[in-house]
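User: NAD kinase, Pseudoxanthomonas sacheonensis:
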Amino acid sequence: MTTPRIAFLASPSEEAQQALTQMTALHGVCEPEDADVLCALGGDGFMLQTLHRHGGLGKPVFGMKLGTVGFLMNHYRDGGLLDRIAAAEPAKLRPLEMLALTESGASIGSLAYNEVSLLRQTRQAAHLSIDLNGQTRVDELVCDGLLVASPAGSTAYNFSAHGPILPLGSHTIALTPIAPYRPRRWRGAILKADTEVRFRVLDPYKRPVSATADSHEVRDVVEVTIRESRERTVTLLFDPEHNLEERILSEQFVV
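Assistant: Predicted structure for NAD kinase:
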């Protein structure tokens, strides 16, 4: 069996940089473009950065936790990496595509592996309408914001906003309001993954709204369209005892 070429990528933290030195001493240095596997050293934030920067290469990513949050990561160990990669279980993720139109007329696209969120920019609540596949479902939602989350991202910001946890591979996305005021009883929806979701900002000048795809923020938006990507996928690798599907399932039973 050919030994895989591994490109190590590390967050700026001291702990991750020390691990980078250890890993490259053991396995050598390889550029992402030439690698068979990418190994991300850091937390979930750095994993998302890695997917945004290098996801287009189509290389599987094995992450090791050296950060605050590591839901998308494996435990860090400095030995046995080749055996762990050989035994790893893949999890395919399909990101969300965001297209945001701004007051200035700019059209800005971005990908989100966790969620796309719309948030009010001032003290005044946002007034939004919601269309699904071209049909208006909510004429006016008064809220602090609104988000669309993928299954992998449903345990993050979405869950803290009281949204549902979605099983990996369920081909669904979560639509979750943030601090909704009106309609009083609406608490969001679970949608088929191929649903095209469009938000319109009803009073963008008096009540400005920003849109954020993972960490990419676009301010003063007037319309945002979101759908699951039909072309882009990324593969994360997990230790069998630490696989992502089981972890997402277990999150539903935490009391």
